[in-house]
């Protein structure tokens, strides 16, 4: 059993996932997708009702914790898993009609380091770049990764590394995303903090995707439901246009590389009062409002034929 009144370390999160898989074998499968640079196992949770299994069911992929210090992201991802599984009876449709693939901590090495050594650590822990450790796992998903935003200097917080998919963590995610629910994954949501943004591709160019109106519409409906809970405001738009140019992001790759139509980066609470150090007493309110948005996406994705 996990609680969401505090932030949990990686070991605790993994234990929670393992217990869930054991207790709910009909709907939860724990998938190992590969190891990190420091040899930690990476876990993706598949939530799918085996009773209603179907090869044509639509799927959603969710991830969190690409950036180590953004603790609210794994906290939300784990809560989402909990809500879908442990509260299944309250809303069975989200599990019966959809398959979920949730990777709550995409950067376990960095996450562990942010607990033990440096609370504001962002990158992974690969020491490949001389005196400075770490590669920013976000900007290494596409060939376009060096086009803007991401840094070529290994000491920089946004160092994009030597090559696209050079890092074990990103390569594992690429392979997992391409192998699970191929052709039926309609949405990919990657959770970050902070800023309260609901971002669409592209992050590498100010040009908009062809289907931007549809991407925007779904985002708007999701955010409206979110805001209705506590009045929290989210800014919607393409990454480049409402945030900054940052090429090579996982969202751009999910859409442009993996062909998942509804791809979003969501920057969770807050807008800067606490920033990455979001107090733990905001975890539950953050999750309750984001759940309303998530349900809108889930309902929409269920209906896509
Ligand atoms: O810069 C990033 O990687 C993300 N922001 S954060 O403050 N969490 O680091 C934004 C990524 C948005 N998506 C793309 N630029 N593709
Ligand atoms: Zn981030």
> What amount of the residues lies in strands?
15-25%
User: What is the radius of gyration computed over CA atoms, rounded to a whole number of angstroms?
Assistant: 18 Å
The CATH superfamily label reads Zn peptidases
What spatial form do the alpha-carbon principal axes imply?
A: globular
Please count the beta strands (DSSP E, at least 2 residues each): 8
* Assembly level: single chain
Q: Which class in CATH terms?
A: Alpha Beta
Strand order of the largest sheet: 1-2-4-3-5-8-6-7
Structural class of the helix and strand makeup? alpha/beta
**Uncertain ranges:** none
Provide a descriptive summary of the structure in words.
Belongs to the peptidase M14 family. Keywords: Carboxypeptidase, Disulfide bond, Hydrolase, Metal-binding, Metalloprotease, Protease, Signal, Zinc. It comes from Daphnia magna. The chain is an alpha/beta fold and 305 residues long. It has one domain (10-303): Aminopeptidase (3-Layer(aba) Sandwich), CATH 3.40.630. The chain has 9 helices and 8 strands. It has helices at 10-23, 72-86, 93-96, 108-116, 168-179, 212-230, 239-242, 250-256, 283-303; strands spanning 28-35, 41-47, 58-64, 98-103, 185-193, 197-200, 235-238, 262-268. An 8-stranded mixed β-sheet has the order 1-2-4-3-5-8-6-7, sandwiched between helices. Helix 6 (212-230) links the parallel strand 6 (197-200) and strand 7 (235-238). The longest helix is centred in the C-terminal third of the chain and has 21 residues, at 283-303. The radius of gyration is 18 Å and the shape is globular. The N and C termini lie far apart (37 Å). Bound molecules: N~2~-sulfamoyl-L-arginine and zinc ion. Zinc ion is lined by residues 66-67, 70, 192.
């Amino acid at each position: 059993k996990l609680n969401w009144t505090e932030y949990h370390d990686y070991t605790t999160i993994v234990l929670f996932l393992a217990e869930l898989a054991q207790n709910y074998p009909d709907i939860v499968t724990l998938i190992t997708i590969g190891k990190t640079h420091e040899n930690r196992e990476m876990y993706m949770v598949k939530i799918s009702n085996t009773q209603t299994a179907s090869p044509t069911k639509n799927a959603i992929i969710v991830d969190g914790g690409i950036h180590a210090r953004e603790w609210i992201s794994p906290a939300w991802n784990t809560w989402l898993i909990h809500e879908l599984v442990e509260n299944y009876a309250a809303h069975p449709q989200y599990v019966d009609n959809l398959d979920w693939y949730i990777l709550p901590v995409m950067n376990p090495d960095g996450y562990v380091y942010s607990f033990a050594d440096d609370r504001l650590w962002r990158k992974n822990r690969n020491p490949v770049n001389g005196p400075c450790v770490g590669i920013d796992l976000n900007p290494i998903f596409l060939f376009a990764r060096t086009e803007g935003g991401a840094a070529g200097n290994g000491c920089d917080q946004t160092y994009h590394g030597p090559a696209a998919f050079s890092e074990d963590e990103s390569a594992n995610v690429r392979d997992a995303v391409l192998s699970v629910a191929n052709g039926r994954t309609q949405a990919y949501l990657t959770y970050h903090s902070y800023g309260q943004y609901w971002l669409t591709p592209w992050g590498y160019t100010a040009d908009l995707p062809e289907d931007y109106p549809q991407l925007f519409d779904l985002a708007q409906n999701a955010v409206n439901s979110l805001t209705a809970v506590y009045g929290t405001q989210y800014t919607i738009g393409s990454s480049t246009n409402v945030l900054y140019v940052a090429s090579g992001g996982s969202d751009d790759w999910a859409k442009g590389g993996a062909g998942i139509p509804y791809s979003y980066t969501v920057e969770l609470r807050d807008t800067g009062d606490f920033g990455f150090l979001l107090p733990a007493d905001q975890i539950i309110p953050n999750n309750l409002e984001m759940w309303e948005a998530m349900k809108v996406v889930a309902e929409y994705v269920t209906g896509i034929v």
